[in-house]
Amino acid sequence: MTTLEASRQAYGDEFADVMGVRARYLDVGKGHPVVLLHGAGTGVSARANWWLNVPALAPSFRVVAPDLVGFGASLPDDPSSYPFGIENWVEYVIALLDALDIEQADFVGNSLGGWVALSLAIRHPDRVRRMITMGTGGVPGSALPLMKEHTSSVDRTREGMRQNLVDFVVDPSIVSDELIDLRLAEGSSDAAVASRLGTTAARARDRVELPLSDEALGGVKCPVLAAHGREDALISYRASVAVATMVPNADMHLFSHCGHWAQIERADDFNKQALAFLT
């Protein structure tokens, strides 16, 4: 398995001013752009979500993987007053695309990232060619009880972080010391904790105000591959069933023996599916 340290050495970080935030992102490879949007959680970042996927995609595509505002190193100066939310995250991604002179891209979104990507496709259909979602959030009634525990807690302890991450997978051996160290380093600062409180509150609000309803999903016109882990303990695979049912040009792939992180837990299979669909 490719290590996070190898990923750090192979792919350096880039920074840009995006809507007044010093945004961190990866930008590697050449070809049609593919934008990778991570999920939520303490210490999450683009690198911590996509280190097993960038090496597979970069030989064929230009891969852009930002830390969404409020996560990783993309933290606002004053998280307590920042307008976190789906609409803001969508415009943040659009602003980054503009800064990078990207007119149209493919999108791969995990959890919150899937919610953002689908919302972006509804609001800015001309900017999206095709899309993969997995474990996508925002679908009414799809959040499982364990998700509520995760959204109500911020844990800076090593064992707390380990348990948080184990909840995402079927195979706990995937939760390495290296991954725990990275998530703790990214999520333990006061600014990161304040941002997590803000992003958590915004997601709870937008599940009510801006859900991915059947009507909203019907407005997604680009081709979509809705992927999900069958054993996902945070968001029911029925969320992806809704995407595949309501989006006019959608297919679905259900990964067996897989939790919330199909891109990590079934990385080889996910990469093959992604390459086939995006190509």
Overview of this protein structure:
By secondary structure, the chain is of the alpha/beta class. It has a single domain (4-278), classed as Alpha/Beta hydrolase fold, catalytic domain (Rossmann fold, 3-Layer(aba) Sandwich). It is 42% helix and 17% strand. It contains 13 helices and 8 strands. The chain has helices at 4-10, 46-50, 54-57, 86-99, 112-123, 145-151, 158-166, 177-187, 190-209, 214-217, 238-246, 262-265, 267-278; strands spanning 14-18, 21-28, 33-37, 62-66, 105-110, 128-134, 224-229, 250-255. The chain has an 8-stranded mixed beta sheet with strand order 1-2-4-3-5-6-7-8, with helices on both faces. Strand 1 (14-18) and strand 2 form a beta hairpin. The protein is globular. It starts with a helix and ends with a helix.
